[in-house]
Design brief:
By secondary structure, the chain is mainly α. It is 72% helix and 1% strand. The chain contains 16 helices and two strands. It has a two-stranded antiparallel ribbon with strand order 1-2. Strand 1 and strand 2 form a beta hairpin. The two termini are 24 Å apart.
């Protein structure tokens, strides 16, 4: 015997409500992740123990929310191919710990927990951001935060002593914003700036929002120059060139060119008037270019000693003194080149896994950036891709990926850039159509 009419009517309704609830849950998780990243940035870049612990706990919550969404859907759905090399990279420190092939067991375990936290942010962004409407709100939120944070950082940098943050936190004279090193502030702002640029060139927002976004982009760009980070300046210029080239090639419009050129000119005037001395100076606490090159040369010998699996994740500071060829009283806390440090700590396998990850990331992103002025999924993909390019360029000269807040933000942007479009944005519309058809019946 067939089921009752009431039962027959309830099943379609349940099937339509669940996608709607799932879409809202995805967006909420995505916005929670952004809030967590903002907290990590404001907490001095999450370099202190308590902030790292908070970031890891937040990432665990983020993973639990993603897992809960999968359970609610009664299936596990993973669409991002970049997860494969990412999992290989994450498995390397596990192998190092299991086999004892690490120079410092505690450092490897400690850093592995941070990598797992970064993985949670990547997973959330890549699997929960398929909705264009969610991406639109995400881009606007990131742009607003970047603008307000840049205004705060410049005001603090121009009126407060260079060795004090928040009026109470002492640094070594290179701090800016909430970071104890101005280069790391620039690294964050390089990743946030493209979101303001894509809004300022979008055809699907009001002219007033485009104008405000252009102002925000100018503020973020100017703050990079005011910070005095020369690596940040080089990285953001290369990213802007890529951004303009994309619009010239795919969009056939000069809107992006006008926006970027106006921002560059105004930012240059601002910097020249207010902070030329900061740009031209270098703190004694920063590594010189010659020392950076020497560290890289010394590190080659460390890679030769452990060519496949490296010396162990997080062990660079422990193993570098045995290869150092120059005299110094300073503590070498990083390789000042994230690629060199990755090769030392994870070997050629880790370096090749990272290369495969980046290849798949940019391949996936290139499939969805052709209509950035008309489509919000494409716009955010482009912004995230340009932000990743900027930080990867800066990583040749500094160690932004060793700063937890910046590494987590990069992982989040990598997830946005490599994500595939989803259909969650249409769930509410489908539900309304189904309701209308039942009322007509």
């Amino acid at each position: 015997m067939s089921s009752s009419p009431m039962a027959a009517c309830s099943n379609p309704l349940r099937r339509q409500v669940r996608p709607q609830a799932s879409a809202w849950g995805k967006q909420a998780t995505l916005y929670i992740a952004c809030g967590m990243l903002a907290f990590a940035v404001l907490a001095l870049g999450a370099v202190q123990e308590w902030a790292i612990c908070a970031l890891e706990c937040e990432a665990a919550l983020l993973f639990a929310l993603w897992a809960g969404e999968q359970i609610a859907r009664e299936s596990i759905r993973v669409t991002n191919s970049t997860l494969i090399p990412a999992l290989v990279l994450l498995s390397l420190p596990v192998v190092q710990l299991a086999t004892g092939r690490t120079a410092y067991f505690y450092a490897t375990r400690y850093t592995l927990l941070q990598w797992l936290a970064y993985g949670a942010f990547f997973l959330a962004a890549s699997e929960l951001s398929g909705s264009p409407s969610a991406r639109k709100r995400l881009a606007i939120g990131i742009s607003v935060f970047g603008t307000l944070y840049a205004i705060f950082a410049m005001i603090q940098g121009l009126i407060a002593p260079p060795d004090v943050l928040y009026g109470i936190v002492k640094t070594h004279g290179t701090g800016f914003g909430s970071y104890t090193n101005r280069n790391h502030y620039a690294g964050l702002m390089e990743m946030l700036l493209p979101f303001g640029l894509v809004i300022s060139t979008s055809l699907s927002v009001s002219s007033s929002l485009r104008l405000l976004s252009s102002f925000g982009s100018l503020v973020m760009l100017a703050s990079i120059f005011v910070s005095g980070s020369r690596g940040g300046m080089v990285a953001v210029v290369i990213a802007l060139i890529f951004f303009v080239f994309h619009y010239w090639r795919h969009e056939r419009t000069s809107a992006a060119v006008r926006t970027v050129l106006a921002s560059v000119v105004l930012a240059s005037v601002f910097v020249g008037f207010f902070s030329y001395e900061r740009v031209s100076s270098r703190s004694v606490m920063e590594a010189t270019d010659s020392i950076r090159l020497q560290i890289a040369r010394d590190s080659i010998h460390l890679v030769a000693q452990h060519p496949l699996l490296g010396s162990g994740l997080g062990t660079f500071t422990s193993v570098y003194p045995q290869a150092r060829t120059f005299a110094t009283n300073s503590f070498v806390n990083a390789a000042h080149n994230d690629y060199v440090q990755l090769a030392v700590e994870t070997g050629l396998i880790g370096l090749l896994s990272a290369a495969a990850f980046l290849f798949l990331l940019f391949r996936n992103a290139s499939l969805h950036i052709q209509r950035a002025r008309q489509n919000w999924f494409s716009a955010v993909t482009l912004a995230a891709m340009v932000g990743c390019i900027a930080l990867l360029v800066h990583s040749l000269l500094d160690f932004n990926l060793q700063i937890p807040a910046n590494a987590a933000a990069f992982a989040f942007l990598a997830g946005l850039a490599s994500a595939a479009p989803g259909d969650s944005d249409h769930a509410p519309e489908q539900y309304s159509k189904a309701s209308s058809s039942r009322r007509e019946a």
